[in-house]
């Protein structure tokens, strides 16, 4: 039986051709369709030509659909790329002007962190300078005390013979 298009089939929608429909119906009623196919054996050359031309037509339709889909995909991809580029350029202009919230919020956090670190560094510097002054004062006091003790020892050693009575003399 030559393949015919069943009503309701649309071109290029992935629907089965008439021959495919007959085969799918044949799976539900194998006895009736297989006997009909056996009766059509003498016309197999005509039906194969018809099937080949139908297959070629369907193949061309599918290729046209594929080409159309590829064009649409390319257009959509370019639109998406252009939209993303516009969005990135807009964000960049917002950053340059200084109005971008994506930029200002982290910048404010960084500036706050910098302010805290500067305060901590200032306090640390002040404490280190104070520590150095204390060490200097301590060294100065220690040197002065050492000088006094050394002077006292020298006085004792120098004047000790004067105050001691020598029994030998």
TrEMBL record:
<keyword id="KW-0805">Transcription regulation</keyword>
<feature type="region of interest" description="Disordered">
    <location>
        <begin position="1"/>
        <end position="56"/>
    </location>
</feature>
<keyword id="KW-0678">Repressor</keyword>
<dbReference type="GO" id="GO:0010468">
    <property type="term" value="P:regulation of gene expression"/>
</dbReference>
<protein>
    <submittedName>
        <fullName>Breast cancer metastasis-suppressor 1</fullName>
    </submittedName>
</protein>
<feature type="compositionally biased region" description="Acidic residues">
    <location>
        <begin position="36"/>
        <end position="54"/>
    </location>
</feature>
<dbReference type="GO" id="GO:0005654">
    <property type="term" value="C:nucleoplasm"/>
</dbReference>
<dbReference type="Pfam" id="PF08598">
    <property type="entry name" value="Sds3"/>
</dbReference>
<comment type="similarity">
    <text>Belongs to the BRMS1 family.</text>
</comment>
<keyword id="KW-0804">Transcription</keyword>
<keyword id="KW-0539">Nucleus</keyword>
<dbReference type="InterPro" id="IPR013907">
    <property type="entry name" value="Sds3"/>
</dbReference>
């Amino acid at each position: 039986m030559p393949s015919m298009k069943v009503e309701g089939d649309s071109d290029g929608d992935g629907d089965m051709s008439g021959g495919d429909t007959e085969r799918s119906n044949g799976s539900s009623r194998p006895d009736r369709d297989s006997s009909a196919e056996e009766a059509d054996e003498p016309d197999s050359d005509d039906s194969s030509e018809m099937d080949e031309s139908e297959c070629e037509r369907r193949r061309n339709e599918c290729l046209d659909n594929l080409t159309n889909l590829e064009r649409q995909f390319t257009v959509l991809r370019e639109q998406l790329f252009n939209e993303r580029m516009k969005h990135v350029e807009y964000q960049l202009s917002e950053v340059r002007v200084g109005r971008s919230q994506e930029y200002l919020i982290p910048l404010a956090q960084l500036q706050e962190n910098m302010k805290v670190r500067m305060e901590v560094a200032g306090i640390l510097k002040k404490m280190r300078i104070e520590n150095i002054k204390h060490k200097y004062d301590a060294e100065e006091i220690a040197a002065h005390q050492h000088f006094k003790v050394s002077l006292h020892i020298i006085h004792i050693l120098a004047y000790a013979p004067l105050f001691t009575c020598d029994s030998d003399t």
